[in-house]
Amino acid sequence: MSVEVETSARLLASALAVLGERQPSARLDAEVLLAHALDAPRTRLHGWPEAPVPAARAAHFRTLVARRAHGEPVAHLTGCREFWSLPLEVTPDTLIPRPETELLVEVALTLVDGDGAITAADLGTGSGAVAAALSSERPAWRLVATDVCPRALAVAARNVQRLGLANVTLRSGDWLDALGGERFALIVANPPYIACDDPHLERGDLRFEPPLALRAGRDGLDAIRRIAEHAREHLLPGAPLALEHGHDQGAAVRALLLRHGYRDVRGYRDPSDHERVAVGFA
User: Fold this and answer.
1) Domain of 25?
2) Distance in angstroms (rounded) separating the CA atoms of residues 78 and 98
3) What is the number of structural domains in the chain?
4) Are residues 100 and 12 located together in one domain of the fold?
5) N or C end of the chain: smaller count of CB under 10 Å?
6) 75 inside domain
7) Cβ pair 123, 148 in contact under 8 A
8) Rounded to an integer, what distance in angstroms lies between the CA atom of residue 117 and that of residue 128?
9) Closest CA to 228 of 208, 196, 248, 253
């Protein structure tokens, strides 16, 4: 009696049947999970689709697919998510870095002239994604990255160490509390900005991410209010504060910045033409 050999092609076909072929991300999810199970690049799946797959790795892949079918994020299943072309460790203790947050990095890089030595702060760093991206682009900068969650800071520390980013310092504390009396040439933050009763919190990947990194009061602006109110005390004269916010919160966040005395307040839009980053100058 012959035993059917498992191949990448067969495993991907069976995974699509479980995940639902019509789901937009089903094929990508299946390929990422199989590449992870094989400890190989995705290109191998396309270059050698009929290559035999060891039974143990095939079984591991099926387990990952079953967990994905129940909603677990791919980033949690693989323990990794790429951000700004940097491979970052991700755990359930951190927000999964999103492509839209790269706009915050792009904007921040334009707010400081040149690439000379400055000191910048990243509030609520989570996995360290924004600080790592800025550090990789501006090695002369000194980055101070803060978070109130010790487990998130541990993840950020591993990412910083593995990427060899010697110019990033991690501090424990709630938002601006971790900055002490220091003043910075730039402060950036991707704070929680989802309202506590938003139904999206019960859907998709958000169900598996830390509530502390997502929820921000009745209107989703509690964290942004706190940062906007006190960040000027930690900015050098004329230095910028850059905040990521929800796609429909631009006007409200700009109004908050103006109310707290920031100058030249402006909004930046993502490729989908949603305003996602607000900037004001001390």
Assistant:
1) 8-70
2) 16
3) 2
4) no
5) N
6) no
7) no
8) 20
9) 253
Q: Which residues pair with 88 in a beta bridge?
A: 81
Could you tell me the CATH number of the domain that includes residue 62? 1.10.8
Q: Which has the higher per-residue pLDDT, 200 or 11?
A: 11
The answer to whether position 258 is within a domain reads yes
Q: Specify the amino acid at residue 243.
A: L
Task: Give the position of tokens 């602006």.
Answer: 221
* CA-atom Rg of the chain in angstroms: 21
Distance CA 177, CA 209 (A): 24
CB count in 10 Å sphere of residue 62: 17
What band does 277 get if pLDDT is binned at 50, 70 and 90? Answer: very high
3-state secondary structure of 255: helix
Does any domain span residue 2?
no
Distance CA 211, CA 170 (A): 22
pLDDT at 206: 74
Asked whether residue 61 falls in the same domain as residue 195, the answer is: no
Could you tell me if 79 and 89 are in contact, meaning their C-beta atoms sit under 8 angstroms apart?
yes
Torsion of CA 234, 237, 240, 245, to 10 degrees: 50
pLDDT at 2: 42
Tell me: do 143 and 22 sit in the same domain. no
C-alpha to C-alpha distances, 238 to 107, 110, 111, 243, 268, nearest whole angstrom:
16, 15, 11, 16, 19
Q: What is the pTM of this model?
A: 0.88
pLDDT in tens, 34-64: 999 998 888 888 888 888 888 889 999 999 9
Residue 11 · residue 53 · CB < 8 Å: yes
**Same structural domain for residues 114 and 154?**
yes
Closest to 122 (Cα-Cα) out of 77, 84, 81: 84
Task: Say how far apart CA 204 and CA 18 lie, in whole Å.
Answer: 17
- Is 110 in the same domain as 168? yes
